[in-house]
TrEMBL record:
<dbReference type="GO" id="GO:0044715">
    <property type="term" value="F:8-oxo-dGDP phosphatase activity"/>
</dbReference>
<feature type="domain" description="Nudix hydrolase">
    <location>
        <begin position="200"/>
        <end position="341"/>
    </location>
</feature>
<dbReference type="InterPro" id="IPR015797">
    <property type="entry name" value="NUDIX_hydrolase-like_dom_sf"/>
</dbReference>
<dbReference type="InterPro" id="IPR031804">
    <property type="entry name" value="DUF4743"/>
</dbReference>
<protein>
    <recommendedName>
        <fullName>Nudix hydrolase domain-containing protein</fullName>
    </recommendedName>
</protein>
<comment type="similarity">
    <text>Belongs to the Nudix hydrolase family.</text>
</comment>
<comment type="function">
    <text>Probably mediates the hydrolysis of some nucleoside diphosphate derivatives.</text>
</comment>
<dbReference type="Pfam" id="PF15916">
    <property type="entry name" value="DUF4743"/>
</dbReference>
<dbReference type="Pfam" id="PF00293">
    <property type="entry name" value="NUDIX"/>
</dbReference>
<dbReference type="InterPro" id="IPR000086">
    <property type="entry name" value="NUDIX_hydrolase_dom"/>
</dbReference>
Length: 369
């Protein structure tokens, strides 16, 4: 196929108050689990979502919101799913990114104009398959035939584009594949992944403690100096899935780095499924699949962060975590999906709730391949 110059010309160019600490934390000397908690303050509905920026809330704020029950049981959960699946109507603005005849991603038609400056790396070719509204697809130059050559060439382009176009470059590579478990075509800078719309896979683990028939989740508060979602609430353990490591081994590695969980414990983590989402934000298209794990921890275990990415941990009753998910924006957005999945599987969300099946299905709104 030849270069599609006519197609290139068709691309559009305009295109609160504090309260005593009620939950045990990783910095507490007393880790006993409270059997009953009385909250002196329940924030009014009008201020539930004030804390949308991670740097501006404390554990005391989390405690206050944790007991804020909602009469509309599932609405808050649906809101969190929507946060991860925005602007689906804009899919038509993206052009397929193809390698060796397979779609590996999608590039926004306007962002593709930046790539056309690097003609020895990227090409815009005619597309007769009907996969593109623009009649074109993005491809790599045929001279780039090996994974190593592609990784180096695309990496150099990303460095040239710089932070203005691709913010948050961190020199961490993700594999580019057509689907999970298939051969890697090349590796791509993590920050650039949504600009090329590649499938990204991760592992997220809910670490919980059980006592007297009640479950408690260890939750993390991200470091305020993190480049992404600083200060937000997070899972006990989570991370992207690099090339060449299995999901199970990645969980063991992340457990050690993020929470100080030894292999003797982390190796008992149970794979329980996956959630997926598709989010469009400007030129960025996120097509993420998160493999979910549960790990039942000893009652006396206290997590300790080793890689500097977590500020602190807290042990919170699952029922209160559910309220935090429903009524606030304190959690990193995709963590909400994994915890909602946990609530389904452990019986906290029941079929009697209106919208049960619709919510369950929505947790896999993305392409689970």
């Amino acid at each position: 196929m030849g270069s599609c110059n006519a197609c290139c010309h068709r691309l559009p160019r305009t295109l609160l108050r504090s309260s005593p600490s009620l939950f045990p934390s990783s910095s507490s000397s007393n880790i006993s689990i409270p059997r009953r908690i009385h909250f002196p303050f329940c924030p009014p509905k009008s201020i539930r979502n004030i804390y949308t920026s991670g740097e501006h809330f404390t554990w005391d704020d989390v405690v206050q919101f944790a007991h804020d029950d909602s009469s509309d049981v599932l609405r808050g959960y649906f809101d969190k799913v929507t946060l991860c699946n925005r602007n689906s109507e804009k899919q038509s603005e993206f052009i397929p990114f193809m390698i060796e005849g397979q779609i590996v991603g999608y590039v926004h038609n306007r962002f593709s104009l930046n790539l056309q400056r690097y003609k020895d790396v990227f090409m815009l070719l005619e597309d007769t398959s009907g996969n593109s509204n623009f009649g074109c697809h993005v491809a790599l130059h045929p001279v780039l035939s090996s994974s190593e050559d592609r990784t180096k060439a695309v990496g150099n382009v990303i460095k040239c584009l710089g932070e203005n176009l691709i913010p948050g470059i961190r020199n961490e590579l993700y594999p580019v594949t057509s689907s999970f478990g298939t051969p890697e075509f090349f590796s791509l800078e993590r920050a650039a992944a949504p600009f090329f719309g590649i499938k990204v896979y991760g592992v997220h683990m809910n670490g919980y403690v059980e006592r007297d028939g009640e479950k408690y989740l260890w939750i993390a508060k991200r470091s305020k100096v993190k480049s992404t979602y600083p200060g937000k609430l997070d899972h006990l353990v989570a991370g992207g899935l690099p090339y060449g490591i299995s999901c199970g081994e990645n969980i063991v590695k992340e457990c050690e780095e993020e929470a100080g969980i030894p292999r003797s414990i982390s190796s008992t983590a149970t794979a329980v499924g996956a959630v997926s989402y598709m989010d469009i934000d400007g030129y960025r298209l996120k097509r993420d699949v998160l493999f979910c794990y549960d790990l039942k921890l000893p009652e006396d275990f206290i997590p300790t962060n080793k890689d500097g990415e977590v500020e602190s941990f807290k042990l919170v009753p699952v029922t209160h975590v559910a309220n935090i998910i429903r009524n606030t924006q304190l959690y990193k957005e995709n963590c909400n999906l994994v915890i909602i999945d946990f609530l389904f599987r452990h019986g906290y969300i029941k079929p009697e709730a209106f919208g049960y099946l619709k919510l369950l299905k929505s947790l896999r709104s993305g392409d689970c391949t």
